[in-house]
């Protein structure tokens, strides 16, 4: 990091010194500017070194490497079987109503697209979008209600009819 920073800072520093010298600025002022910039680079490099030393993910001497460590998968979202048990529908909207938007991908849900409805809050999403979301989250992306797939007593392959009022 300090070497990269030096490679970024030193060329403009040299140009600055030459420009200041050619502009008639006394050499002592130019040297002071150069020294201040070099001190700045050194402080940044020192801070980076200290940050690297304090990093919790940095291995300690004698610690086993990541390759030797047993693979433990973090359980963040809900399980695949719970995701599969959520109700799946073919989307359709009521005549005159406006379409819904998938809050995960922000695209409009089109007619006859496969959607999933979360049982606790009844929000709708594209099937693929909510499946990806629920692999790493346990809550609805809209209202943060916990997703309880066991509460999904509704059978799959139904249709969702969204009732909206026309303005």
Automatic annotation (TrEMBL):
Enzyme Commission number(s):
2.3.2.27
Group of enzyme by EC? transferase
User: InterPro entries from the xrefs?
Assistant: RING-H2_zinc_finger, Znf_RING, Znf_RING/FYVE/PHD
Catalysed transformations (reactions): S-ubiquitinyl-[E2 ubiquitin-conjugating enzyme]-L-cysteine + [acceptor protein]-L-lysine = [E2 ubiquitin-conjugating enzyme]-L-cysteine + N(6)-ubiquitinyl-[acceptor protein]-L-lysine
Residues that span the membrane, as ranges: 5-23, 29-47
Residues in domain RING-type?
102-144
Decide whether keyword Zinc is in the record: yes
Its keywords, alphabetically, are: Membrane, Metal-binding, Transmembrane, Transmembrane helix, Zinc, Zinc-finger
Q: Which GO terms describe its molecular function?
A: ubiquitin protein ligase activity; zinc ion binding
Family matches, as SUPFAM superfamilies: RING/U-box
Signal peptide limits: none
For the keyword Zinc-finger, the answer is yes
Q: Which family does it belong to?
A: Belongs to the RING-type zinc finger family. ATL subfamily.
Q: What is this protein called?
A: RING-type E3 ubiquitin transferase
Organism annotation: Panicum miliaceum (Proso millet)
